[in-house]
Amino acid sequence: MAPEISWRGLTATLVVLLLIQPSISIYCDDDDCYDLLGVSQYANSSEIKKAYYKLSLKHHPDKNPDPESKKLFVKIANAYEILKDESTRAQYDYAIAHPEEVFYNTARYYQAYYGHKTDPRAVLVGLLLVLSAFQYMNQLTRYKQALDMVKRTPAYKNKLKALELERTGGATNRKKSNKQMNKKMEEDLSNELELQIKGAEKPSVWGLVGVRFILLPYAAGKMLLWCVRWLWRYKVKRAPYSWEDASYLTRRSLGVPHDSWNYIDESTKEDLIGRRLWEKSNLQSYMAEMRKESKRRR
Ligand SMILES: *[C@@H]1O[C@H](CO)[C@@H](O)[C@H](O)[C@H]1NC(C)=O
After folding, report:
1. How far is ligand 1, taken at its centre, from the CA of residue 58, in Å?
2. Is 46 a pocket residue for ligand 1 (Cβ < 6 Å)?
3. Are residues 107 and 125 both part of a single domain?
4. Can you give the pLDDT at residue 106?
5. Ligand 1 pocket test: which of 39, 40, 42, 44 has the largest number of ligand atoms within 8 Å of its C-beta?
6. Between 295 and 229, residue with greater pLDDT
């Protein structure tokens, strides 16, 4: 059961994630920072400082146990953080005067406030990125090593020779286009080989930790749906297995990986599926049959 990625599902997941994500709020949220401190937009720094000390004393949680007051205390402190610094105050004034530059203002806000502090979300994203990069490099190296090893085997060299002969057919202009030919052949062969090398899959973006993490809700949802559908169809309604599901059961009982199954020809697949190998007795008799066959061949 390998849920495959579909673009429709991916888009749906992203939409859900964006909805779950709390809406981005910058500076003093929906409040005006100056209003929170009760000062005018033209107040100088000492006025702002004075206003802040007065209000923070009034709403300090130690003096004022009212939960609303506590909320206000936090808001006031935040507003003061922004207005006490000339540069962040200027940024805030700019954001108020240019509400249309949403992205620029948001970026500047995060630059100022999370640039030096570490946002746990940023740490998580960074960690996932680093892990994914390592994973990708590792996969790429292993894949290349496996490919190199295969290319050094006599079987590969013979195949290359055979292919070369077949293509050129001892043609006259062999020298001229030899290099080009070789390159193309090499590519063809390695494409063919990619399908055959097990244990070293070509690196895929979908398998990376970071991508998996983002797709987790989607994959889990898809898996759940799959299980429910399976139970309903085959356990409750006792419907006969569809071709696709019978393929899956057959593949699983024989321990054939998904990719390899795709390269089995249709008539063999049909024969295998017809044997209903997911039933233990059928599998056992099939295995016994295969053993006998291989002995006979030897
Ligand atoms: C700020 O403004 C107040 C009142 O207008 C004034 O008394 C004070 O000197 C000013 N302070 C500075 C640093 O400009």
Report:
1. 23
2. yes
3. no
4. 78
5. 44
6. 229
Which contacts qualify for 10-16: CB closer than 8 Å, 24 or more apart? Answer: 10/215, 10/218, 12/218, 13/214, 13/215, 13/217, 13/218, 16/217
Residue 5 maps to a domain: no
CA-44 nearest atom, ligand 1: 1
pLDDT tens for residues 226-267?
999 999 999 899 999 998 899 999 988 888 877 778 778 888
Letter for the amino acid at 187?
Answer: E
- The residue type found at 53 is Y
pLDDT attached to residue 41: 94
Domain boundary at 158, 192, 209, which? 209
Q: Return the number of other C-beta atoms located less than 10 Å from residue 59's C-beta.
A: 20
Ligand 1 close to Cβ of residue 47 (< 6 A): yes
Characterise 139 by phi-psi region: left (phi > 0), alpha (psi -120 to 50), beta (else). alpha
CB 124 within 8 A of CB 181: no
174 C-alpha to center of ligand 1: Å? 91
d(CA 164, CA 158): 10
Q: How confident is the model at residue 192 (pLDDT cuts 50, 70, 90)?
A: low
Protein residue with least CA distance to atom 2, ligand 1:
44
Q: Structural domain of residue 203, as residue ranges?
A: 120-209
Encoded amino acid at 179, one letter: K
